[in-house]
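User: What would this chain look like folded?
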Amino acid sequence: MNSGIPVDIRQRLLRDYPGETTFEAMRLVESLRVAPRVLRSIIHLAHGRYEELERLARRAEIDWRDVVFWAEYEDHEAEHPRKVRSMEEPFS
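Assistant: Here's the prediction, encoded as structure tokens.
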């Protein structure tokens, strides 16, 4: 699994998708042509559910800003959503 995916993202995939799903999750993420910020957003929102990872990856291909917004902000429907995290920062 030596790819251009940042180390923190690879480690998070190994943690969130153990066993046989590791390969599938890694392959899916490697196929995406998006910034690490978008990858972190997708993985954060999927919460270890592979089907959700797939759904969010498709959504990011349509408009990556949606998944970043959902990951970084709370109160999405509010007039002034609140930024609560940055997906620019590596997973800890």
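The radius of gyration is 13 Å. If you want, I can go into more detail on any region.
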